[in-house]
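Propose amino acids for all 195 sites.
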Protein backbone atom coordinates (compact mmCIF):
# COMPACT_ATOMS: atom_id res chain seq x y z
CA UNK A 1 0.00 0.00 0.00
CA UNK A 2 1.40 3.36 -0.92
CA UNK A 3 1.13 6.11 1.63
CA UNK A 4 -0.24 8.62 -0.88
CA UNK A 5 -2.97 11.18 -0.49
CA UNK A 6 -4.15 11.95 3.01
CA UNK A 7 -1.77 9.70 4.87
CA UNK A 8 1.25 10.73 2.80
CA UNK A 9 0.60 14.26 3.96
CA UNK A 10 0.46 13.02 7.55
CA UNK A 11 3.72 11.13 7.16
CA UNK A 12 5.52 13.95 5.35
CA UNK A 13 4.40 16.67 7.71
CA UNK A 14 4.64 14.43 10.79
CA UNK A 15 1.97 16.43 12.54
CA UNK A 16 2.65 19.92 11.18
CA UNK A 17 -0.45 21.25 9.40
CA UNK A 18 -1.04 24.58 7.66
CA UNK A 19 -4.79 24.55 8.30
CA UNK A 20 -7.68 22.21 8.93
CA UNK A 21 -7.51 18.82 7.28
CA UNK A 22 -9.87 18.48 4.32
CA UNK A 23 -11.91 15.72 2.70
CA UNK A 24 -9.96 14.48 -0.31
CA UNK A 25 -13.20 14.09 -2.28
CA UNK A 26 -15.12 17.33 -1.63
CA UNK A 27 -12.59 19.57 0.20
CA UNK A 28 -14.91 19.99 3.21
CA UNK A 29 -12.99 20.52 6.48
CA UNK A 30 -12.96 17.32 8.53
CA UNK A 31 -12.48 16.90 12.28
CA UNK A 32 -9.29 15.37 13.64
CA UNK A 33 -11.12 12.04 14.08
CA UNK A 34 -12.57 11.22 10.66
CA UNK A 35 -13.01 8.24 8.35
CA UNK A 36 -10.76 7.18 5.50
CA UNK A 37 -11.51 5.57 2.16
CA UNK A 38 -9.14 3.26 0.31
CA UNK A 39 -8.88 3.91 -3.44
CA UNK A 40 -8.07 0.42 -4.70
CA UNK A 41 -7.12 1.50 -8.23
CA UNK A 42 -4.44 3.88 -6.89
CA UNK A 43 -3.56 2.03 -3.65
CA UNK A 44 -4.21 5.26 -1.79
CA UNK A 45 -5.92 6.28 1.44
CA UNK A 46 -8.13 9.35 1.34
CA UNK A 47 -9.55 11.49 4.14
CA UNK A 48 -13.34 11.50 3.97
CA UNK A 49 -15.99 13.67 5.56
CA UNK A 50 -19.00 11.80 6.92
CA UNK A 51 -21.11 12.38 3.81
CA UNK A 52 -18.41 11.26 1.35
CA UNK A 53 -17.59 8.21 3.50
CA UNK A 54 -21.20 7.06 3.14
CA UNK A 55 -21.66 8.21 -0.46
CA UNK A 56 -18.50 6.83 -2.02
CA UNK A 57 -17.83 3.61 -0.05
CA UNK A 58 -18.68 0.20 -1.45
CA UNK A 59 -21.11 0.28 -4.37
CA UNK A 60 -22.13 3.92 -3.86
CA UNK A 61 -21.24 6.90 -6.05
CA UNK A 62 -17.63 5.69 -6.20
CA UNK A 63 -18.71 2.72 -8.31
CA UNK A 64 -16.89 0.29 -6.02
CA UNK A 65 -13.53 2.07 -6.41
CA UNK A 66 -13.40 3.02 -2.72
CA UNK A 67 -13.43 0.83 0.37
CA UNK A 68 -14.38 2.31 3.73
CA UNK A 69 -11.60 1.74 6.23
CA UNK A 70 -13.26 -0.03 9.18
CA UNK A 71 -12.82 1.15 12.73
CA UNK A 72 -12.45 -2.16 14.56
CA UNK A 73 -9.45 -3.02 16.68
CA UNK A 74 -8.88 -6.49 18.10
CA UNK A 75 -6.06 -7.30 20.49
CA UNK A 76 -4.60 -10.73 19.80
CA UNK A 77 -2.60 -13.18 21.84
CA UNK A 78 1.05 -13.13 20.74
CA UNK A 79 1.54 -14.31 17.16
CA UNK A 80 4.92 -15.69 16.06
CA UNK A 81 5.62 -13.58 12.97
CA UNK A 82 9.22 -14.82 12.65
CA UNK A 83 8.31 -17.36 9.94
CA UNK A 84 7.06 -14.49 7.75
CA UNK A 85 10.68 -13.47 7.18
CA UNK A 86 10.40 -9.79 8.11
CA UNK A 87 13.56 -8.54 9.85
CA UNK A 88 11.99 -5.93 12.14
CA UNK A 89 9.91 -6.03 15.31
CA UNK A 90 7.68 -3.01 14.61
CA UNK A 91 5.72 -3.92 11.50
CA UNK A 92 2.26 -4.27 10.00
CA UNK A 93 0.97 -6.86 7.55
CA UNK A 94 -1.72 -5.98 5.02
CA UNK A 95 -3.51 -8.77 3.13
CA UNK A 96 -4.49 -7.81 -0.43
CA UNK A 97 -7.61 -8.70 -2.39
CA UNK A 98 -5.45 -10.72 -4.81
CA UNK A 99 -4.18 -12.95 -1.97
CA UNK A 100 -0.76 -11.32 -1.60
CA UNK A 101 0.42 -9.81 1.68
CA UNK A 102 2.73 -6.86 2.22
CA UNK A 103 4.67 -6.08 5.37
CA UNK A 104 5.55 -2.49 6.18
CA UNK A 105 7.69 -1.07 8.95
CA UNK A 106 8.21 2.52 10.01
CA UNK A 107 11.50 4.31 9.46
CA UNK A 108 12.72 7.90 9.66
CA UNK A 109 11.93 8.21 5.94
CA UNK A 110 8.43 6.68 6.03
CA UNK A 111 7.28 3.09 5.56
CA UNK A 112 9.61 0.34 4.33
CA UNK A 113 7.88 -2.45 2.41
CA UNK A 114 8.40 -6.21 1.94
CA UNK A 115 6.39 -8.86 0.15
CA UNK A 116 5.41 -11.84 2.32
CA UNK A 117 5.41 -15.31 0.76
CA UNK A 118 1.81 -16.45 0.34
CA UNK A 119 2.36 -19.94 1.78
CA UNK A 120 3.90 -18.45 4.94
CA UNK A 121 0.88 -16.17 5.42
CA UNK A 122 -1.45 -19.14 4.86
CA UNK A 123 0.31 -21.05 7.65
CA UNK A 124 0.11 -17.95 9.89
CA UNK A 125 -3.65 -17.68 9.30
CA UNK A 126 -4.06 -21.37 10.17
CA UNK A 127 -2.19 -20.78 13.46
CA UNK A 128 -4.22 -17.64 14.23
CA UNK A 129 -7.76 -17.94 12.79
CA UNK A 130 -8.59 -14.30 13.68
CA UNK A 131 -6.32 -13.24 10.80
CA UNK A 132 -8.79 -14.80 8.37
CA UNK A 133 -11.37 -12.19 9.46
CA UNK A 134 -9.25 -9.26 8.27
CA UNK A 135 -10.73 -7.13 5.49
CA UNK A 136 -8.27 -7.09 2.57
CA UNK A 137 -6.57 -3.77 1.82
CA UNK A 138 -8.07 -1.90 4.80
CA UNK A 139 -7.10 -3.90 7.90
CA UNK A 140 -3.67 -4.96 9.11
CA UNK A 141 -1.92 -7.15 11.64
CA UNK A 142 0.11 -4.61 13.66
CA UNK A 143 3.00 -6.07 15.69
CA UNK A 144 5.44 -4.52 18.14
CA UNK A 145 8.06 -6.80 19.69
CA UNK A 146 10.72 -4.08 20.03
CA UNK A 147 12.38 -3.50 23.42
CA UNK A 148 10.50 -6.27 25.21
CA UNK A 149 7.06 -5.22 23.99
CA UNK A 150 4.61 -7.90 22.87
CA UNK A 151 1.70 -6.22 21.09
CA UNK A 152 -0.34 -7.92 18.37
CA UNK A 153 -3.45 -6.21 16.98
CA UNK A 154 -5.83 -6.29 14.06
CA UNK A 155 -6.29 -2.61 13.27
CA UNK A 156 -7.52 -0.34 10.49
CA UNK A 157 -4.66 0.62 8.17
CA UNK A 158 -4.98 4.29 9.10
CA UNK A 159 -3.76 3.37 12.62
CA UNK A 160 -0.66 1.88 11.00
CA UNK A 161 0.11 5.04 9.10
CA UNK A 162 -0.43 7.15 12.24
CA UNK A 163 2.27 5.00 13.81
CA UNK A 164 4.56 5.50 10.78
CA UNK A 165 4.06 9.28 11.07
CA UNK A 166 4.82 9.17 14.79
CA UNK A 167 8.11 7.31 14.22
CA UNK A 168 9.14 9.73 11.51
CA UNK A 169 8.31 12.74 13.68
CA UNK A 170 10.10 11.50 16.81
CA UNK A 171 13.17 9.79 15.28
CA UNK A 172 16.53 11.43 16.02
CA UNK A 173 20.00 10.39 14.87
CA UNK A 174 20.96 6.92 13.71
CA UNK A 175 19.28 4.87 16.44
CA UNK A 176 16.14 6.93 16.99
CA UNK A 177 17.20 8.95 20.02
CA UNK A 178 15.42 9.09 23.36
CA UNK A 179 11.97 10.16 22.13
CA UNK A 180 10.87 7.63 19.54
CA UNK A 181 10.54 4.46 21.64
CA UNK A 182 8.63 6.06 24.52
CA UNK A 183 6.30 7.59 21.90
CA UNK A 184 5.78 4.17 20.27
CA UNK A 185 5.07 2.64 23.69
CA UNK A 186 2.47 5.38 24.36
CA UNK A 187 0.89 4.74 20.95
CA UNK A 188 0.36 1.06 21.79
CA UNK A 189 -0.75 1.83 25.36
CA UNK A 190 -3.47 4.11 23.96
CA UNK A 191 -4.86 1.54 21.50
CA UNK A 192 -8.23 0.31 22.68
CA UNK A 193 -10.33 -2.55 21.43
CA UNK A 194 -13.46 -1.59 19.53
CA UNK A 195 -15.92 -3.60 17.45
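Proposal:
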Amino acid sequence: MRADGALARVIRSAGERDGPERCDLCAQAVPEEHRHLYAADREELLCACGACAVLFAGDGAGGGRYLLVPGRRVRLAPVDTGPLGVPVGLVFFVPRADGTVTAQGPSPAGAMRWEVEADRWTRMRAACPALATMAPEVEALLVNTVRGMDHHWIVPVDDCFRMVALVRREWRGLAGGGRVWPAVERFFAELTERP
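The helical segments are 5-13, 50-56, 118-127, 157-170, 180-190. Residues 74-190 form one domain.
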